[in-house]
Amino acid sequence: MWTPELALALALAIPALGGVMVALLGNRPNWREGATLVSGVLLALNIAYLVEIAPSQPTLILASIAPGLELAFKLEPLGALFAAVASGLWLVNSLYSIGYMRGNNEKNQTRFYVCFCIAIAGAMGVALSGNLLTMFVFYEVLTLSTYPLVTHKGDAAARRGGRIYLTILLGTSIGLLLPAIIATQFLAGSTNFVAGGLLALNDVTPMIAGILLVMFAFGIGKAALMPVHAWLPNAMVAPTPVSAFLHAVAVVKAGVFAMLKVGTYIFGPALIAATPTSQPLAWIAAGSIVLASLIALTKDNLKARLAYSTISQLSYVTLAVMLGSPLAMLGGALQIVMHAWAKITLFMSAGAIYTATKKTNISQMRGLGRHMPWLFGAYTVGALSIIGLPPLAGMWPKLFLMQGTFEAGQVVLATALIASSLLNIAYLLPLSARAYFEPPEEAKLKKPAPMLVILPPVITAAGVIILFFLIGPLRDYLLPVFEPVAIVETVL
Predict the structure, then answer these.
(1) Where in the cell is the protein located (predicted)?
(2) Cα torsion angle, 98, 104, 105, 111, sign
(3) Fewer Cβ neighbours under 10 Å: the N or C end of the chain?
(4) 311-346: b (≥16 Cβ within 10 Å) or e
(5) Coil, strand or helix at 411
(6) The pLDDT value given to residue 483
(7) CB 90 within 8 A of CB 71
(8) How far apart are CA 424 and CA 336, in angstroms?
(9) Is-contact 19 41, C-beta < 8 A?
């Protein structure tokens, strides 16, 4: 019988078993990739069931290590929504990966798909974790399983990028995140995620909470808050499906999700607002939003530009947490969803352009829109969503975050959001303009792009439009997480 507990276990078991099947079928590419797609479909169906039952908050204890220390899952709406985003986009990204890896004759494809399966299992563990200990374990699984993906090409640049990736992510998690978890256990006698905030309910002083808040903010290195962001642009040496996975499906999204979950269930909005460090951290997040956008303007390489765009856009979530405003935190949760669909569209577009032309720099992409109209149409939709224009999904998080700055009495921080949107225009739309309105450098493409690198970004671009009209159900689904009495209904 399919029970909530079984579904929680299957969220990890399906991708893990998928990885085993991929490894066993490594010499039969069609079967191997079929196993990946079947795993993706089964996981998406399982997560759809969990999304539906999330308000009942079922739990599953995997192992009890000591009193108050358990490896456990607890389903709740925020985690269920992140799991839905990650599982749904993994399926789309798997389709794209087949077209990209074959279209570019990439080596070690079996290892590539196996690591993807392990990584998505790690992302599911983070999403559905019931306490900080469980979240930490799967956070590290995600780091270690994506390292071979970052270093996939095996050249000097890939090895260097991988070293930076591993050093920063392991260094921050072991040096700051783990001590913060140990301190939480000592102060509260538990690391469980609790509505209202574990530390708030245990009367931890604002000063102590403020110190812990700093440790969590920089210890969750996957959130890419400056100055612990350098791993992200250096990881762009990976194949484009990996870049899309890092930015939209799992790694960075797992980082900001962890930040949001810690802020909501370990601190609680009221305690965050009372700490002496929340405002400085909010300013650091706002600075990351603007500075990363300015750096993006200087990058001609499309993937590098998109990498700094992600640092900027995901700092929205950290800003939302540090504002200590339920309305802003709701905006942060929506940003995880809306940004994922738009950013994966942009990265898959970059990979499709490379597959067809071997071009990586924006200055080389003149006139390509005439040869790849559907692809550049999808790119433009994704870019306009990141900017925040209606009727595209990216508008809603910015609106809620703007309202959240007013609710927190930090109106000046809204200027960072405004500046970000203006800078988004400056660094995202020039590619569309070059592609559509400038004469092409060459008469035709080097080779036609495979359908499997064109269709996925078109699908996700359509998703960006659809999500705009689903804001009501999404808002209502998340309201119980962020103190609904404090939510201003007139935002919509």
Answers:
(1) Cell membrane; Membrane
(2) negative
(3) N
(4) bbbbbbbbbbbbbbbbbbbbbbbbbbbbbbbbbbbb
(5) helix
(6) 67
(7) no
(8) 17
(9) no
- For the chain, residues with pLDDT lower than 70 are 1, 441-447, 483-492
Whole-angstrom distance, CA of residue 5 vs CA of residue 22: 26
What tokens were used for 181?
Answer: 């978890």
Name 299's Cβ contacts closer than 8 Å, sequence gap at least 6. Answer: 305, 308, 427
Calpha distance 160→293 (Å, rounded): 24
Nearest-angstrom CA–CA distance, 328 and 317 = 9
The closest alpha carbon to 287, from 263, 319, 261, belongs to: 319
Which contacts qualify for 142-145: CB closer than 8 Å, 24 or more apart? 142/222, 142/250, 142/251, 142/254, 143/169, 143/170, 143/173, 143/222, 143/251, 145/115, 145/118, 145/119
Residue 464 phi, psi (nearest 5): -60, -40
C-alpha 383, offset from chain centre: 17
Q: Which two tokens stand for residue 76?
A: 């709740």
**If DSSP states are collapsed to H, E and C, what string results for 162-202?**
HHHHHHHHHHHHHHHHHHHHHHHHHHHCCCECCCCCHHHHC
CA distances in angstroms from 458 to 247, 305, 351, 373, listed in the order given = 18, 21, 13, 11
Show Cβ contacts of residue 323 under 8 Å, excluding neighbours closer than 6 positions. Answer: 273, 278, 282, 329, 404, 405, 407, 408, 410, 413
List C-alpha distances in Å: 244 to 258, 323, 332, 456.
19, 29, 20, 12
Amino acid (one-letter) located at 236: M
3-state secondary structure of 226: coil
For residue 4, the one-letter residue type is P
> Tokens 């530390």 sit at which residue?
199
Q: What is the pLDDT of residue 445?
A: 60
Neighbours of 426 (CB within 10 A): 13
108: left (phi over 0), alpha (psi -120 to 50) or beta: left
CA–CA separation, 229 and 220 (whole Å): 11
Spatial contact of 316 and 386, defined as CB atoms under 8 Å apart = no
User: What is the Cα–Cα distance from 268 to 200, expressed in whole angstroms?
Assistant: 7
Which residues in 369-394 are b (16+ Cβ under 10 Å) and which e? bebbeebbbbbbbbbbbbbbbeebbb
Q: Note whether 93 and 344 are within 8 A (CB).
A: yes
Query: % helix / strand / coil in the chain, to the nearest 5?
Result: 75, 5, 20
Task: Retrieve residue 350's tokens.
Answer: 């970059």
Look at the chain and count its residues: 492
Question: First CA to last CA across the chain, in angstroms?
Answer: 41
pLDDT on residue 388:
93
Which residues are CB-neighbours of 52 under 8 A, at least 6 positions away? none
Tokens standing for residue 235: 């990881």
